[in-house]
Amino acid sequence: QITLKTNQLNDLTEKLYEKRREVHKFKKQLEALHSEKITLQRSLENTTQERDNFRILQAESAHQTQQLTTEISANEVKINSLNLKIEHLNNNIKELQSELKNKQNLVASLRKDLREIKEKNEMLAKAISNDEFRFMKMGHELEEMRKERNLVGLQMVRRNDEIVVIKEKLQIAQNALDNGTTQYNQRVEDIRLLKKEISNLYTERECLKHAIKSTADMRKEIVRLQRALNQERIRIRALTEDAKTPTGVHRWRILKGEDPTKYELLEKLQVLQK
Questions:
Q1: Cβ proximity of 274 and 214 under 8 Å
Q2: pLDDT in single tens digits along all 274 residues of the chain
Q3: Backbone conformation region of residue 95, classed left if phi is above 0, alpha if psi is from -120 to 50, else beta
Q4: Is the pTM of this model over 0.90?
Q5: For residues 1 and 268, what is the distance between their CA atoms, to the nearest angstrom?
Q6: How far apart are CA 139 and CA 210, in angstroms?
Q7: Whole-angstrom distance between the N-terminal and C-terminal Cα of the chain?
């Protein structure tokens, strides 16, 4: 039994070393996941910065459109020669206003910035009222603004495409983060189970140590019990022979026997099991 227990102890120690190696591997994997998480956070910060830059460009374009509307509304009386061009511009402005109404849901987060831009627009309106002599060059400026509007439209389309690509990248990164968190939770659960197994192995080792220490006492107890058994067998043989061939009346006696109580039987069983 001692050799079997020692072999079991050796097997358990080998398993312990293997489990420790696995725990070390899990730690390395967790560190790699942590580094991936940091890189993903950095990429998220870059994307947020790009989004903020795009919002700033959108605000500037909105500011330019509002500046055009204010300049056109303030100078409708003095630009009778450019009524046809202004009507075309009004149609374009109406289309832009319809687009702006559709995009008001997206610009809800930028209302605070728009308030500041309105204040700047009022200052610019005052500056425009002082600069009335520039209205003779409105034709050329309007043509340039058309070109700029077309460029802004192209930029908006490009930015929308970039936003779609960034959203896809964010979705991929979010999925990777979710997978990383699930794997991390699984590894934490595995580590907890391994810790329990290690604690159980420590307790088994302590029990085996106590069992190995108690084997010598058990051997002595077995020898003593065997001696007592032999003495009791000899006494029983002598009594049976005396009972079969009685030699005298004075040696007769009443045989008495009682079963031990359950408590005594349980104590004996526990002693024998130990």
A1: yes
A2: 788 888 888 888 888 888 888 888 888 888 888 888 888 888 888 888 888 888 888 888 888 888 888 887 777 777 677 678 777 777 877 887 777 787 777 766 677 776 887 788 788 778 777 777 776 777 677 788 888 888 887 888 888 888 888 888 888 888 888 888 888 888 888 888 888 888 888 888 888 777 777 777 778 888 888 888 888 888 888 888 777 765 555 555 666 777 778 888 888 888 888 8
A3: alpha
A4: no
A5: 22
A6: 103
A7: 14
Question: How deeply is 263 buried, as exposed, middle or buried, from its count of CB atoms within 10 A (0-12, 13-18, 19+)?
Answer: exposed
Place of tokens 């032999």: 230
Angle at 246 between CA 240 and CA 249, to 5 degrees: 130
